[in-house]
Write a structure and sequence with these properties.
Layout: E1 11-12, E2 19-20, E3 30-32, E4 39-44, E5 49-52
Antiparallel strand pairs: 1-2, 3-4, 4-5
Bound molecules: zinc ion.
Length: about 60
């Protein structure tokens, strides 16, 4: 009896289709695409779904 659980679902940037080696853990988390630099907001974890985050003018200074 084995159960397949995908802990690292493939995640692609909707902007440039780059594969993101990131596993988001929270809905609402914002990821940076390493391919094009787009900010991607995690809108859902199950299923894993991201969308381009609204462009923010603020610099979070991280
Ligand atoms: Zn990208």
């Amino acid at each position: 009896m084995s159960q397949t659980i995908l802990e690292t679902a493939p995640l692609e940037c909707p902007e440039c289709a780059a594969r993101l080696a990131i596993t988001p853990t929270l809905a609402g988390e914002v990821l940076d695409c390493r391919g094009c630099g787009a900010e991607l907001e995690v809108v859902s974890l199950t299923p894993l779904l991201v969308q381009l985050a609204p462009h923010a003018e603020e610099d979070w200074g991280e």
